[in-house]
User: Fold this.
Amino acid sequence: MPTSPEPIPLLSATGLVKVFHAGGRAVRAVDGVDLSLAAGEVLGVVGESGSGKSTLARLVLRLTEPSAGRIAFDGRDITALDGEAMRRLRRDMQIVFQNPHSALNGRRTVGEAVAEPLRVQGVARGAALDARVDRLLDQVSLPRAFRHRYPHELSGGQKQRVCIARALALEPRFLVLDEPTSALDVSVQAQILDVLGELRRELSLTYLFISHNLAVVRYLCDRVMVMREGRVVEQGPVAALFAAPAEAYTRTLLDSVPRLPRP
Amino acid sequence: MAPPDLAPALAEAPPSFRVRHASTIRQWRLYAHLFRRSFSSMLGLALVVLFLVLAAFGPWLAPYPGDTAGAVKLSQRLLPPSLAHPFGTDEMGADLLSRVIVGTRISLWIGLIITGVGAGIGVPLGIVAGYTRSRLLRGAIMRLTDLFLAVPGLALALAIVAALGPGIANCIAALALVWWPGYVRLVAAKTLSVKEELFVEASRAAGARTPWILWHHILPNCLSPIIVKLSMDMGLAVLAAASLGFIGLGAKPPDPEWGAMISVARSYMPDWWWYSACPGLAIFLTVLGFNLLGDGLRDILDPKSAGR
Ligand SMILES: Nc1ncnc2c1ncn2[C@@H]1O[C@H](COP(=O)(O)OP(=O)(O)OP(=O)(O)O)[C@@H](O)[C@H]1O
Ligand SMILES: [Mg+2]
Assistant:
């Protein structure tokens, strides 16, 4: 399915601001961020801890209400979309959270977790639902028998695969990956990244990929955006930005990680 | 509405019940193992099972089932404990053990209704208070709860019974009406913490509506403390109902209700001490049983709050 070059980005945000009021103090977690993602593109977001990456992810998915700014998805302004319309739109945009250990309800089986999006959106039920859950588990290379297990019986990497399967269930076009590997062992990280890379090719997905691991960003992303204290300090194509970072902050980020050879 | 590209389920044999629920079975085994190791939990369970059996089959287990219907055998008045009447007889000549056994059903029903209605009102209110983003709604529910909690439940129930008039139905209604605030507190606090969990946000990100989230994510995670409290409260509710019966506001004496029996027995103290001993022991063992069971359940289901 070739995506003809189209002028409208799949996702765009302008002037996004999120102010949290915590303990009488206002924290500008995201402070005037513009971004734009073409269909099929992978945009990396990097920055130190607390720079507002997760908040940005929640904002573009409207899981958190922005204090200011506009968000458009597929050419349509979704900033003020009401509950029911937003709910339907969620079929197209999904998220994989930072911490797979808390992203799964310990009282529900893997099968129930993966089936949940399909059930709440009324997409499938009965035998069709079962078949679809099996296929999703196949897609993330988990044994089908895992559907009867509870999260506490799974390893971190397996849990994250479940989360990915759940995020893919509705066949979204846009996926936010909020540090999908940061809670995992190094050996498992590579497997998860492989899964994500493959899925992207197979399903022609668009990713917003958040990470503070620059080696990973380099491996997966087309473009990268560097954040600090809620602002974008620098952005550009991965190769260019990594070869010649313009900002001192980006250089310190680059220097603070061990360099891996390009795969 | 399934898309046409969905192949029908592959022709594998569906896994057996044991396979599908292996995880659940393992979990229950673990619970059973932990529970069995504790003597007090097992004692509590044994007592609760004993009283449940008495409640279910009382009329068939009682040695003199006829004595509960108000038979008068003047020749056998106030007999001390003997082989024929292990707990003696009352002023009508009725076998006390039989009356207490048959009374079990009344007492457990009272406990069940009171805690059931209490939880039925308190749990939904607690979930709403904990989950809502409206400060006003939460404030209203919590203030009302605090108000009820500020007055001792039994005193409030007394006032309600006094207004409605004595009787077992009014007694149950009054106690049920004062029993819910504890559940609101418990569930609201738990909901407040569970709703911040990532899996709730994940569910919302998938497009789940609030009722779905409450039912599938919030409630299941509140269930352990609710079950523990239900067990503890069963004993307390039985005791409260007996207290009302004792002061003459609950069940009326010909009924074999434990509190009412003790209230009559009071005037036969201390010479005919066995009259009050039998129903008193039944109340004591019921409360003890449900409390030990609740304690044991807490240790396995909700170990973090064990110190409270
Ligand atoms: N719900 C909230 N209430 C108050 N402050 C918040 C909230 N969420 C985030 N913040 C604050 O906003 C800032 C940005 O947080 P955010 O989680 O977006 O950072 P991050 O870049 O994702 O960090 P990390 O790499 O550690 O995940 C932090 O200072 C954080 O304390
Ligand atoms: Mg984060």
About this structure: The mean pLDDT of chain B is 83.
